[in-house]
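Researcher: Please translate sequence to structure tokens.
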Amino acid sequence: MVADPRFMPREGRTDDPHSSLSLVERDRRWNATRAEMDKRGIDCLYIVGRGNNENGNTRWLDNGDYTERYLIFPRKGNPIILWALPIWERWYTQNSWEGCEFRANYHSPSIAAAQAMSDLGYCKGKIGIVGLIGEGMNPEGSIPYMTFQNLKAQLPDASFCDASDLLMRLRIFKSDEELRMIEKASELANIEFDALIRHARPGIRESELAAEVVYASLKAGNELGRDHWFIMCSGKTGYPVNRRPTDKILRSGELIMTGNYTRFGGYWAHPHYAISLGKLDEEYRPMREAVYEATQLALSLLKPGTPWEEIDRRIDEPILSRGYYHEITQIHCVGLDGIEPPTTCLVRGDVPAKRFPLKGSLADNEEYRRFRGSGAGIMQDLIVQPGMAVALEIKAVKDDRIFIEFGPQVIVTEQGARVMNPMALDVVEL
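Model: Translation complete:
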């Protein structure tokens, strides 16, 4: 990585940016988690870190810079990382916080977890599953069905509850150390934008432009790997939004829209930029006005004391009042996962009739109702507070054909929204 005095690793730790997170930060997280476990009478957490936007729960507690795994987090005793084979132990423990242990699960996480919980003295305890009932864009959770069923069979005297919201409620509000990581990730996104406007011109291919953009941020410390995304859409055939750069040749007058998913120390930034090669096409101008108005509205609402429900209810007014719609959430939080709760509504507006809403609801499932209980979801009672890291991706779509989208990364402070990517506040005309 490029040397940065804000992110010098602690003595004895590997030379990675995540190593700069202090033991004070570790203790803050572990103590807060155990305090919430005490309130709920939970003896042990079984945390599932699997799939897209689901690894953050494990990393928040073990600080490990690696892929999918399970984590046992007891009320008393050391956390235990569960993954694959014993050969991984050295790597996993070296890249985690001091105090984390490792056990191979031999691809049987339920059996390994049950044995670990029994060794910790919790075979008859109350086990909270983080990943059983989800929030936001993943309401069905992330634990495999057979893993959960076999865990219950292995621990017949234990009781089980959903604890997914326990960690998410703690993770929503970032510490100063976490915000430094997010600031750095946002700086890397700005570096990508600078490269974008240097190289964007008629005649270049999307793939060539993407290579210049990613090259610039990787040199500056952006984390390389399967987690780094860069999306680009150009021309009037770009909808839907999230597609990869192609060999399409850019032409004068076209609109380029990018999603810059940069990451540092595990923490994401998530700005969207819109660049016009020349004067903005007339068809896009009323769409730009709608998105600009909605973006400014969002920034005014992202201040301490605003109920999240109000943001969710009002954010789409400028979009819908002009006859546009969207099918991806407009605002969401961000941190160790690229998309974190809370989120605003996924779909709003008069979408084309060819798409039909699903019939039925998770609430029709008796087991879902039992595990969810009567508790309110994260988004239902949340009040905006300082320390929230929020990604804006405000968009308006027309006729399933064209769209316009932009939006910066924002950190909520006592004074309101602090914008990390000012060039993502509007369309930039080159």
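Researcher: Any highlights?
Model: Residues 64 and 95 are 5 Å apart (CA to CA).
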